[in-house]
Amino acid sequence: MGLREIKMERTRQLIADTALELFSRHGFDHTTVEQIAGAAEVGPRTLYRYFPTKESLLVGFVAAHLAVAAEQLKVQPVDTPLPEALYALVESVIATITANSDRILTVYTISDRTPSVRAQFGELWRAWQDDVAAEITRRHSGRSPEIIGQMGAVLCMLAIDTSVRAWVRSGGKANMRRLLNRALEMLRAGEVPVATPPART
Predict the structure, then answer these.
(1) What distance in Å separates the CA atoms of residue 97 and residue 44, rounded to the nearest whole number?
(2) Model pTM?
């Protein structure tokens, strides 16, 4: 990464950190782009070059870390069993939450209260699910690879989202690794009910 790219990344991070601080203090709806730009000591035009909408100031952070998690799956050796390769993705999510617990709590709290942010998170999750599904499909050598890919991605995403929400409800006090491992264990053990047609008599 060159000097220009390093400066740009620092500016991006400064803007995002400043926005999160203002959102936490004043609320998402009561914080303007102009206030964020002023506090970060950049012009509104500069801010919009990095973040086209106010919502993207929050979603961008999560999107970047989800991309890192998906990459951890993609870089696993091709002969790695698929469940183990998927756990590398899970490990990345756990590491992100552990290292950024205050930020994650704030982001989820704002998302729950703000429909426009929640909508963008929905789009982000769907795009990430498709990305993970494509990689599972590529690695799966059995029958119905596309169906397996989509279902594998959905289940992984469901375990992550459910566990993160339980962690947020605890105020960040619960053990994220324990929550997520337990959710995955429930899926592997068949503890989660799956719709089954009634037996024909």
Answers:
(1) 30
(2) 0.86
Cβ(162)–Cβ(182) below 8 Å: no
Distance CA 6, CA 11 (A): 9
Structural domains in the chain, sorted by start = 1-54 (1.10.10.60), 55-188 (1.10.357.10)
What is the phi-psi region of residue 198: left when phi exceeds 0, alpha when psi lies from -120 to 50, beta otherwise? beta
**Residues whose CB falls within 8 Å of the CB of residue 117, separated by 6 or more in sequence, listed in order:** 28, 55, 58, 59, 110, 111
pLDDT tens by residue, 70-118 = 999 999 999 999 999 999 999 999 999 999 998 899 899 899 889 999 9
Residue with tokens 């999160």: 20
Residues 6+ apart with CB under 8 A from 46: 11, 37
